[in-house]
Amino acid sequence: MKEGPDIALIGSLIGDPARANMLTALMGGRALTPTELAAHAGITLQTASSHLAKLEAGGLLTQRKQGRHRYYALSEDEVGLMLESIMGFAASHGLTRHQPGPKDPALRKARVCYNHLAGDYGVRMLDSLVAARQIVLTGEDLALTDAGRARVEALGIDYAALKKSRRPICRTCLDWSERRSHLAGSLGEAFLTLFIDKGWANREQNSRAIRFTDTGEKAFSELFPQ
Amino acid sequence: MKEGPDIALIGSLIGDPARANMLTALMGGRALTPTELAAHAGITLQTASSHLAKLEAGGLLTQRKQGRHRYYALSEDEVGLMLESIMGFAASHGLTRHQPGPKDPALRKARVCYNHLAGDYGVRMLDSLVAARQIVLTGEDLALTDAGRARVEALGIDYAALKKSRRPICRTCLDWSERRSHLAGSLGEAFLTLFIDKGWANREQNSRAIRFTDTGEKAFSELFPQ
DNA sequence: CGAATGCTTCGACTAAGATCGAAGTATGAA
DNA sequence: TTCATACTTCGATCTTAGTCGAAGCATTCG
Description:
The structure is a homodimer. By secondary structure, chain A is an alpha+beta fold. Chain A folds into two domains: about 5-75, Orthogonal Bundle (Arc Repressor Mutant, subunit A); about 80-225, no CATH class. Chain A has eleven helices and ten strands. Chain A has helices at about 5-15, 15-25, 35-40, 45-55, 75-90, 105-110, 120-130, 145-155, 160-165, 185-195, 215-225, and strands at about 60-65, 70-75, 110-115, 115-120, 135, 140-145, 170-175, 180-185, 200-205, 210. In chain A, strands 1-2 form a two-stranded antiparallel sheet. In chain A, helix 2 (about 15-25) crosses helix 3 and helix 3 crosses helix 4. The longest helix of chain A is centred in the middle third of the chain and has 16 residues, at about 75-90. Chain A is globular, with a radius of gyration of 18 Å. At the A-B interface, helix 1, helix 2, helix 5, helix 6 and helix 7 of A face helix 1, helix 2, helix 5, helix 6 and helix 7 of B. The structure holds a DNA duplex.
């Protein structure tokens, strides 16, 4: 009868507070167990289990069994992008669940957006790459230039491996705190992994915040001048 | 207690089937009355009225009184972008409400995405503008080049007026049928208005589909070669 | 082999909210 | 003024689904 995709199903999955809390926790990028997710949502394990089954059936989550643990994670990049776009709208209307506290500035400075860097630092990184003509817009969203590719490989990122996968290498993702775009896609993920592997940045426990070390700050500023 | 924006509230607003149907109808770009929206959703006027009040309180809709009619519309571009991103996810998981019928190809070819052109034609238009270097990526998403500006003004679009408003002129919007970006923002809206004013294209009644006339097809192909 | 941990399933309770009939308000037309 | 249209508010009903206790699998460890 109606035309177009069914958004009500997805909306109702996101619309329950317990499920929304779990999804927000999973935006931190780590795979989490039902027990951990139940704690995040403030509900019992039984209830969490039923929610997780629904989220998985709806295609938002995937699970991986490992011993007697089950690890849940967001199923695709698209899920992260979709959630971030909803967060963007919610934030712009003052719909926040937290009283602005000490954690807030840290989140705005640098945080994980599922698997890549977001916040002020994420936006600065993309700006800098574009200013240096290492990334440009093509028909299919963003693309690495030859210069960009050389730069990326010099940093030790395996470009060939990214190329092989069917995932888009570069994507834009709308930042809810900055209200501008930052870099997502497999390259975005590779950059964040690089920063952490090099010891330039650390993920905070139970938070989406990313804390840069002093050397990390310096390296980041040199790599991505403003 | 939790950090980050409250996505549950927005999700629950979108999550009710009746409200989702109304929002989808409003993605057609026309402002609609409660009576019309009730018909789209298949509910009585009383129920629709209560839903519309909630959507307005949540910031998704605005209303404009005109005589004894009330016209509801999506409140901002952001709402359209958010809904389209959810539709993108839903469509990629086969969550469609319609049995693929004769209307479907028309929608994929060209349709309204709130206030701008989407579908194959929307994507082709952005591709062509980028290939001709009339639009490029800057730090802040897309931007018109000088060449692009001249082109736009030659077509009769009032660039100065677009510039004055606080709305972004160019924006990307992820297309759910093509799964690539097309042009949103005030320029995207201006282009669609132009096509309709020139008689190149018409909006179908009660549908998001856009039908190009023969002269419209020809003009479009010349303006935006592949 | 128990015993313990991690998780799911079942069943019953409860509360939130979607729905509509009926009545009330506002605008416009005759 | 009177009637009609468009919409909102109120109140009652009823379904849906979120919740947790209890019990049941599965896996690991001693």
